[in-house]
Fold this sequence. Notes:
It is a single chain. This protein has helices at about 10-15, 35-45, 65-75, 120-130, 155-160, 205-215, 225-235, 270-280, and strands at about 5-10, 20-25, 30-35, 50, 60, 85-90, 100-110, 110-115, 135-140, 145-150, 170-175, 180-185, 195-200, 220-225, 285-290, 300-305, 305-320, 325-330, 340-345, 350-355. The protein is an alpha+beta fold. The strands form 4 sheets. The chain has a 6-stranded mixed beta sheet with strand order 11-12-13-10-4-14, sandwiched between helices. Strands 15-18-17-16-19-20 form a 6-stranded antiparallel β-barrel. The chain has a 5-stranded antiparallel beta sheet with strand order 6-7-8-5-9, covered by helices on one side. It is globular and about 65 Å long. The model has no long low-confidence stretch (mean pLDDT about 95).
Amino acid sequence: MHPADLLRTPLEDVHRGLGAKIGPFAGWAMPIEYEGTVSEHRAIRERVGLFDLSHLGKVDVTGPGALPLLQQTLTNDHSKLPIGRALYNLILNDRGGVEEDLIAYRLAPDRFFVVPNASNTAKVVAILRGDASDTDVTEHTGWCFLGVQGPRSPEVVGALFPEAADLPFMGCTESEYRGRRLVLTRSGYTGEVGFELFTEGVSAGDLWTDLMEAGEPFQIEPCGLGARDVLRLEMGYPLYGLDLLPERTPLEAGLSWAVSFDKGPFRGRDALEEQKREGVTTRLRGLVTEGRRLIPRAHCAVLADEGRVGEVTSGTFSPTLGRGIALAYLSPAERFEPSTDVQIDVRGRIGPARVVKPPFVDRSPRGR
């Protein structure tokens, strides 16, 4: 895509003023890093950091048909979701493959706030509108989305929004910021305590500034998408387009916990039922290398039994562990349980790795 065709966050001038490296991501020009991925990773794990995530979708689903619409479109059971809480979800195709993963926040009995990936927002909106009855599906294209993540994030967000103190993990509420609607959630993609804030784009600069000022006592850092990718992979969180694909089912991806088979019909259910009966032959597994020098990347071959048994979908160097980590689809699934030894071919250099069950880094005491 030509740079002139990229979509722009309302905070681009702020990022450039901070010296951010701006690069294309999912059709947007987004900050990839500021001081550096490792420094920003450390800020999130040890203190607090601020992300601009305005490229992600922001969609209201409202009306008497909102709940039935999400029940038939998404994999999780929203009838059991209390007001003020959220659920991780998938949208499947007829073959049971993953077309999208997203979070749906329930703000009222007939009002949900849905956050899809940037590359799939138009597709998700089209699916919801195509299946909608007595439902209004509204995409907020001009809104901003800021993420405050890290152990000190409660103090930072609480300084501006005292109601943040009452939010449980995956909780949500509506508030106001300078007279404009704001959706505040306790969620994130890093494994740390964190909050996500959505409001109109005209308020983006003020909100960014206020959050940075509130975070000064805690040495807050602006953070880019490079650090976010390392943080999510350390937690074993899959990324759509790499680990989640239309040709892979949630049963293969280890996401059966996000599928409610007892709620009634939904997209792709029949295919998943058939796969359950026949058995899952391929599974997404975690891999940890045995040294610092072998850094797996997407599409690297995984080897065992004198042959290729799979392919890395996401890979990076973990600053926390000091070694390479990866997700990979391996087959046959029953052969590659945790503690199994394999090898990874990184551009012709073959080295040892071990199958593990993510997360690679345990952050449960900090807000899971």
